[in-house]
Amino acid sequence: SSRVLWTLAVTQFKIIMSGPRNVQEEIDWCIYQIELGLKQPNISKDQAEDSHRTLKLLKSDKTPFPKKVHIIRTRFSRDLQKLMKEFPIPKQGEEQPTLDISAKEGASDVKP
């Protein structure tokens, strides 16, 4: 069973690394979105704790790369490239709406 999981993780890693997208850019985008969500006044204590745990994992050099990919896929859905185009990280001085990721796993509702 652990051998199957390892094989699956290695296969996913190979697919990710061979793909055209920059996964580190996706991780950076997710970190930015989570940090924006933490600044919202209506965030609950549980949501804040979950966000802090997620940030810690995504920022850690010790977290395996496939685990980071799994985290961003479950938190932001598999349509991450579309979300990244709709909500790019703004340049200095710009503002953007944040995503509501608290409602459901993979939710993509926009909050102003």
Question: Mind explaining what this structure looks like?
Answer:
With 112 residues, this protein is mainly alpha-helical. Strand 1 and strand 2 form a beta hairpin. Strands 1-2 form a two-stranded antiparallel ribbon. It is globular, with a radius of gyration of 15 Å. It is built from five helices and two strands; from the N terminus they run αααααββ. The C terminus is likely disordered. Helix 2 runs antiparallel to helix 3 and helix 2 packs across helix 4.
Layout of helices and strands:
Elements: H1 2-18, H2 23-38, H3 45-59, H4 65-76, H5 80-86, E1 98-100, E2 109-111
Short synopsis of the structure:
This protein is mainly alpha-helical and 112 residues long. 60% of the residues lie in helices and 5% in strands.
What key phrases describe this protein's structure?
single chain; 112 residues; two-stranded antiparallel sheet; 60% helix
**Can you give the helix content as a percent range?**
55-70%
What fraction of residues sit in β-strands? 5-15%
Q: Which structural class matches the secondary elements?
A: mainly alpha
Radius of gyration: 15 Å
- What's the number of extended β-strand segments? 2
Question: In this structure, how is the largest beta sheet organized?
Answer: 2 strands, antiparallel
The helix tally amounts to 5
| SSE series | HHHHHEE
Strand order of the largest sheet: 1-2
Q: Which blocks of ≥5 consecutive residues have pLDDT under 50?
A: 103-112
- Separation of the first and last Cα atoms: 45 Å
Shape: globular
Rounded mean pLDDT score: 76
